[in-house]
Amino acid sequence: MQTAAYAQYRAITTETAGPGDLLLQLYQAAIKNVGQGRLAVECANVPAAHTHIVRAQNIVLELQRTLDHEKGGELAATLDSLYTFMRQRLVDANIEKAVEPLDEVQGLLRQLLAAWQVAVRETRR
Question: What is the pLDDT of residue 56?
Answer without folding.
Answer: 98
